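Morning F.,

Quick status update on the modeling queue. The single chain you submitted on Monday has been processed. Sequence for confirmation:
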Amino acid sequence: MEALERATRVATPPSEEPLSLAEAREHLRVDDSLEDPVISRAIAAARQFAEAFLHRKLCTTGLELQLSGFPSGQIDLPFPPLQAAASVTYVDTAGEEQELLFASGDFQADTVSEPGRIYPCYGQSWPTPRSQPAAVTVAFTAGYGAASAVPDQVKQAMLLHVGALYADREAAEVPEATKNLLWPLRSW
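Structure tokens below.
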């Protein structure tokens, strides 16, 4: 069986960072707002590193997974934890875009397993798409939810990274302690 081509893109970026500016300022022992732009960029960079290292999304993020076709069974969705799967669109053999909706019972979502997955409802199968790149698009939401739901272990790792970026703005390396804190939560 031929492997499906896969690509994921962010459709809706997170509306907040896992760390607040106040949390980062407290960790850095910075009392004024003069360094806020630098600290804010360090927070975003630390989140991006953590997400890439963990293969997870931290705060709620809307994603789209594009596939060159449907698999024979379930579709594993990247970047756990899966919050919800909204829709699956595909190009049918006639070249028309069709939509399957979670709310209509066209497919089921497993938000407990990691990675999260979707699969056709009992007794159904995936339709036949046109043979082309990006024939299937799955819209879903991933992440722990709000910043308050992100594990403290991840936040502490991010604080260490923010500290390194703030202290050495030219050649900061990711602290080994950051990676050590993140390692147990890594998704494969």
